[in-house]
Amino acid sequence: MPFPLSPQTIDTLAEIITGGSGMGSGPSPIGIYRSGPQIERFMRGCTVDFRVNGSRVSKAEISMAGPCR
Predict the structure, then answer these.
(1) Does 2 fall in a domain?
(2) How far apart are alpha carbons 11 and 62 in whole angstroms?
(3) Residue 61: is its pLDDT beyond 50?
(4) Superkingdom, according to UniProt (predicted)?
């Protein structure tokens, strides 16, 4: 069942699930860094078909945006 989430909420959820970029000197991540395969397993556990083929964070945001509209 879809439920509406704001773009800011989706961005924050993606940061929590992926652990952010994992690189750089920016703010500390708010989640635990997960590799692409770890994120795929996590999302499968949530019954979301998810494949990483590029940026893990961007892909997570796009995947979450679909069912949340």
Answers:
(1) no
(2) 9
(3) yes
(4) Bacteria
Q: Which domain holds residue 58?
A: 7-22+30-65
The Cα-based distances of 27 to 19, 20, 51, 58 in angstroms read 12, 10, 27, 18
3-state secondary structure of 41: helix
Res 65 pLDDT > 60: no
Number of structural domains the chain divides into: 1
Which alpha helices (H) appear in the chain, and where do they start and end?
A: 7-18, 36-45, 56-65
Tokens of 58: 């961007």
pTM value is: 0.63
